């Protein structure tokens, strides 16, 4: 690399024959830039981290009594639900809206015209989603344990289960967010297109309503999507075994949760490859 121009900092361009950085290295750099841009938008930062905390406060305050025949409390139930909703918010909703806006503002078209490998762009988005998802979950757990005495997993098995649910959940939802970003016709309509299915899924997946009160036909529809299984798996992490009686199958069904979330990771990747566009529809 050789420096060009004057002043500090200097700009570097590749010398003829010099290899460009790989996709992984560029993806890390892209991720750092995405995070820097995210934290510069204070309103977005506040909304992202406050969203699950505010809802946990509301539901734990409204349904503060012990849950009958489960040996648990509403706050314990809703901390699992809000973690799942927060994961989907920072991945599916965030990427679905932001990528659609970037496409509409020709950001993607300009990036596509650079030597940067396409994979680096998506790696940057994944880093953004992963870091914000971890921070949001940590903030929610601190809030829950401090104000509502939420019990955390007491053994390594519980934390390992939490870990693979988190990774499969955030990966599948991020890939779906990238895929749905191609649906809106413009950046202006992106929020409406993305938020509506997210909101519906929260109601039919047991996020806001106790799972044993959701109609069976709604649960059947919700079982086709990752949020329902992410919620159910996380309830298994944070609730005692007696609370499994609330579930339709009477158990946490970790195997099926892993299967469905894994299938959505593969299916979401296929959808991204088939549907992702660097230009908006007007440009072809």
Précis, in short:
This protein is mainly alpha-helical. 67% of the residues lie in helices and 4% in strands. Strand 3 (66-67) and strand 4 form a beta hairpin.
Defining key terms:
284 residues; two-stranded antiparallel ribbon; 10 helices; transport; cell membrane
Helix count from the secondary structure assignment: 10
What's the SSE pattern?
EEHHEEHHHHHHHH
Helical content, roughly?
55-70%
Strand neighbour order, sheet with most strands: 1-2
Question: Could you say which structural class the secondary elements and strand pairing correspond to?
Answer: mainly alpha
Number of individual domains? 1
Q: Mean of the pLDDT scores? A: 86
Count all strands and give the number. Answer: 4
* Residue runs with pLDDT of under 50 for 5 or more positions: 1-13
- Give a short account of the largest sheet: 2 strands, antiparallel
Q: Determine Rg (CA atoms, Å).
A: 21 Å
> Could you give the distance between the termini?
36 Å
Shape: globular
Please state roughly what percent of the residues sit in beta strands, choosing from under 5%, 5-15%, 15-25%, 25-35%, 35-45% or over 45%: under 5%
């Amino acid at each position: 690399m050789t420096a060009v121009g004057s002043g500090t900092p200097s700009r570097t361009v590749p010398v003829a024959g010099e290899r460009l950085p790989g996709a992984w290295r560029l993806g890390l750099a892209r991720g750092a830039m995405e995070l820097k841009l995210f934290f510069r938008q204070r309103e977005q930062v506040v909304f992202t981290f406050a969203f699950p905390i505010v809802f946990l406060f509301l539901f734990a305050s409204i349904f503060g009594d012990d849950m009958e025949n489960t040996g648990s409390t509403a706050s314990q139930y809703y901390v699992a639900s809000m973690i799942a909703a927060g994961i989907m918010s920072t991945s599916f909703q965030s990427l679905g809206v932001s990528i659609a806006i970037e496409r509409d503002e020709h950001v993607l078209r300009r990036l596509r015209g650079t030597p940067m490998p396409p994979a680096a762009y998506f790696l940057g988005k994944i880093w953004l989603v992963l870091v914000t998802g971890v921070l949001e979950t940590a903030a929610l757990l601190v809030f829950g344990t401090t104000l509502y005495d939420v019990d955390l997993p007491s053994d390594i098995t519980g934390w390992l289960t939490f870990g693979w649910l988190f990774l499969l959940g955030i990966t599948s939802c991020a890939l779906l967010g990238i895929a749905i970003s191609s649906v809106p016709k413009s950046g202006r309509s992106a929020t409406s297109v993305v938020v509506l299915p997210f909101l519906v899924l929260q109601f039919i997946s047991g996020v806001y309503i106790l799972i044993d009160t959701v109609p069976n036909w709604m649960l059947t529809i919700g079982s086709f999507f990752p949020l329902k299984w992410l919620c159910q798996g996380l309830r298994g992490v944070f609730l005692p075994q007696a609370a499994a009686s609330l579930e339709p199958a009477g158990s946490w069904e970790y195997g099926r949760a892993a299967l469905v979330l894994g299938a959505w990771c593969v299916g979401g990747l296929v959808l991204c490859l088939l549907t992702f566009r660097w230009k908006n529809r007007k440009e072809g």
